Protein 1
Amino acid sequence: MFVIGDLLETGQFIIKIEPGHSDEKQDASTKTRASKKKIKNKDPSPPKRKINIEIVVNKEETQARQKEMKEHQCNIQEILLNTNATPIRCHKGIGYTCCFCEDQYRDPAHLKKHTLEQHTQEDKANFMKGSRNTLHGYFVKLDITDLKCNICDENIDNVEAMIEHLKKIHNKNLFPKLNSHILPFKLSKDTLRCCVCLNIFNTFKALQEHMNVHYRNYICTVCDAGFVNKHILSRHEECHKIGVFTCGECSRTFDTARKKTLHQRTKHAEPKLRNKCGYCSERFKEFAQKLEHLVKVHGIVKPTIDCQVCNKSFKTKHEWRVHTARIHLMQKDHNCTLCEMRFYTKHELENHMTKHTGLRQFRCDVCFKSYGRKSTLRDHMRIHADDRRFECTMCGQAFVQKCTWRSHMRSKHGEDI
């Protein structure tokens, strides 16, 4: 018997549809009886036609896929039984979820401890077993933090080396030549870092998606992107399908189905509170609102990304990238045509150009002074509001402008800030 998942994944089947023949030659006596009854049928239904469907399956290909799937299962079971590596189901609610029960932990180290101490060897031997598991969607998220062999206590850096070690040194039944469907993670409470290329991420979801870069088992023929299994590739390929996709609500057309779906979700669908707090079950429309709630209500601070050069911390990867490019890489691609100054963003260049043009388009509604930059007008408005936000910690004197506060600290207290 073949599992339907295996049939779909091989692509080695043919469906033949052959029209049957209607019974044109009816029994004469039947026709006579029908005519005698004089049944009036204004809309006679067409004669039924038989359709013969034949599915031709490449059995050898399917059996090879099933054999490969069993070898993948054998690999992960031997790793779980003979090392301290632990599987991760997902990251949701309050944190990382156990593969063997419903427990969740904010600190991945606590999940690892729970899995090793609370779940038996029998649980690990039965991990990922079952007829519904096919290679089409198979992959395992594995925590290999401080990975070591349980048999000889040797520390080993990665999954591939561990498979070789267990097979050669301890004669375990493993298959090192398979394209790996195991995504390895070395996790800490404060930093999410790829254990292959050491890139930093601020969500586990982003890190997991990134791991496809290193496990290119299935390749997109359009953009050459790689994916760990065929299911993720199939979902990705939807973004390349071009056509005319019309919104049923407003008749707008889009060139991809994904754009149409996004449009319908944002413009026509009722607001769905998709972001659920794992601590109190309150829901939020935006992910950023959920993060703010976690900080204010539950005291949960999202992992920050630390700059490896100057040790500054950033809340998002975007902020970290901008900082790195601007400060450390000195990427200034926007050049002033009137002088030699260069800038990181187009907005900074536009602000600079007011020095050359003398244009003052931002006017104060109180004293009618004009300024070339909106930020300068905003700073000026604090004078009228008596907003003295810059306070000297030594004498208590407060100032409206930061430059005035700095001058005070330098001249009165000898502090060069």
Protein 2
Amino acid sequence: MKTVDCVERKGKYVYFTVVMAEGKEIDFRCPQEQGWNAEITLQLVQYKNRQAILAPAQVELKKPSRQED
């Protein structure tokens, strides 16, 4: 999985898109009035925050190490 986005709130539904590493997308929706919609949204925020924190560490790991002469 590459990312998860809350696409839009439209009418009585919230639409989400999951983007896979291969570029394929999976769309799904949930009723705006139901509580589990809020749980999905909070998990999206947590996932995005984790990605932001780990991104600099992943860049560091990919850098070639410099050897001292």
Protein 3
Amino acid sequence: MIFAALIAGAFVVGGTDGFAASSSAFSGGNMLHHGPRSSQAFSMVSTPPTPSTASTSSAPLTQDQFNAYVQNTYGRYPLTIVRGEGCKLFDSDGKEYLDFVAGISTCALGHADSDLAAAVGDQMKKFHHVSNLYYIPEQGQLAKWLVDNSCADRVFFCNSGAEANEAGIKLARKHASTKLGIAEPVIVTAKKSFHGRTLATMTATGQPNYQKNFGPLVPGFEYATYNDPEDLKRVVKRINRRGKIRSLFGRPRRAVAAIMMEALQGEGGVVPATPEFFSTVRELCDETGALMIVDEVQTGMGRTGKVWGYQNFDVEPDVVTCAKALGGGVPIGAMLCKERADVFEPGNHASTFGGNPLACAAANCVTSKLSENGGALLENVRERGEQLRAGLAELQEKYPETVAGVRGWGLINGLVLNEESPVLAGAVVAETTKLGLLLVPAGLKVVRFVPPLVATAAEVSTALSVIDQALAIVTGAK
């Protein structure tokens, strides 16, 4: 019961890409006890004159010891994962779990993939890092694949989704300044969006709960309702109209520099964009000269059954951002852009680790898997996604008072719970975890399924059986 309550309460504040937990949900119990250091929070501690050898032991810390040293920024489940294999994970007690979280849409090839391990190991034996002041063959190879398999012409490499979105934001601002003559650029994003946790990407995120206590926010962002073309038109028109009036009085011109949208809102509840909405984004950008930025951090690299989520629509963006599955779990991000948007020059933007040989070796392994055997991996994503949605739809019929619907693409799907039902996504996840299936909420009322892209038909069937059992438990049907 305590475990269920912890998980159910963990998502009161926000989404799960960082597990923003409410302090009330995790303040009690041993789960977040801070051990012996907590009583010394305000005492002066001297730095040892030589490095301590106390932490060189291979024995893992207990959860209490872990919390004594690691900052409390995640609402962690009381599981200690020690190894993985394919779509399975194993905890420190030897319990096996079917992993339908995949590091939150990250471990595209599953765990301990032999080809990925070999690619990273071989690269380590050659050289793993050099400065971007030199040409890096592995980076060039990856950039070519990304350009050849997208609508983009150039690539900038970084380390994470937030960094990729930061790069897109900076690119849009410079494009607005140098190409459109906009002195005060505005980037329009969506309500309930998620773009990262840096100051700029947190401001771009249209969820006030992520922004609380971190003001002042970065200026130059406004929000429209996702999948509401008319509201988006109103927002863009209002910004540009008021900007023209300002300029008549000699004030700096304020106008829309970019419209930045997710192809599917993951943290916002696994909500795919509609074709009409994305067409409207493209039309408004064409009319105003603004850049269309698509955040593919969670949907890119095959997650939707296509390489990119935007390929589900008949539009092409000017800028695409990605990370997560790009390296299969090895940190790497990228910002791709069309030639007309390629306004960066040496010194405008940089990243120490971005596109280093080690990360690119991992990403090149992922891209080869997406390309080999005629795109068989993407076909598996589509087939397993159809199987999963069909099975979840059957559960909707079986539990009509609890389950409201199913939505998603490929292998990013959400089981939507009825707003009137007392059952929360966290409670369902708590039960599936006990039963050996790892899932993750997307808000209070959506259970998210983002397994590795290599998930088999048998594994999807197992997941459906477990979620059925969990729903029976939380609804009192069992």
Protein 4
Amino acid sequence: MKKSLSISAIIFFTLFLWSCAPKTNNTTTTQPATNSPTMAPEQNGNNQNSSENMGNTTNMAQYFIYTANENDSTVSIVDMKSMKTIKNVSVGSKPHNVQVTPDGKYVYVVESGNNSVTAIDTSTYSVANTIKVGMNPSHVIFSSDSKTAYVAVSEMKEIDSGDMNGMKKNGNVYVIDLAKGDIVTKIKVGYMPHGLRMTPDNKYIYVANNDSNNVSVIDVSTNKVIKTIDVGKKPVQVAPTQDGKYVFVTLNEENSVAVIDATSMDVIKTIPVGKSPIQDFATSDNKYVYIADKGSNNVSVIDNSSMSVINYIPAEQGTHGVVISKDGKNVFVTNTDSNSISVIDTSSNKVIGTISVGKGPNGITIVE
């Protein structure tokens, strides 16, 4: 009887071990599909705008994106290799715009609430210097040798309603010697000067005067206005093309862009775009201009040959600042109300991802 029980136990134990062993077969397991390089993420108001919402961006060049975060008085620095914010630098009140110097050594922050511009050292990510200017500065650009800064200053306070507090005053473009930190001169322009950029030949500066509905043209050699061009309602920013032929001006209250012929310095066309356009930027090959339409949360793409919009690219909430990489492969757009950057692939004109930054990002620049 005992011998029979022992045999039964051995058989039972053998069957138990066999049932627990892993099974093998010739069936192939299907892997989850991955996004294609041009696939855009789903766009909706609930997107958390994190660096995980990225398409195939493994071939992104090594450079850094800086954003001026007006709602928390910081500048975010994004490493485009890791697609993440690596540092938030505390700066003065209400940083509105950022711009890298041509030599790449500094990024200057325009602090509209502090009436100043602050330099961030791009090698240490730390504040290097602060220069006081007039009331309510907005944008800054530089001479090609990185020695001189030009700052658009309103000289009057903007209140929440969008009207000016008190009597209107002409704004100025402050010319600053960066080595000394001294104001060399002030160039009187229109009411509420906002965006400004220099032409590729470094001869002229175009200034969008938001409250006088015109653009001032400054001769850099004399630091004097040589022409004032009526463009339309509420110009915000200007975008000269690299071939020197045109300057595109966003008209916030007309939902359009005015095109200035750079030779005659006259408006030759007005192009309808999305709602409430803010910043614009021309591609280095002179083919396209990208416009951030804050009121419709998208980016308009203008074909310069046809002078018409060929695409509207959905972004996140409150599209504002625009910059394009030197290789022309990517457009970066700040989303003020979503605290993020949208990354656009120019080969497909689709958003391939979003990156979280500080609160209320406005201006944006690239250090390459």
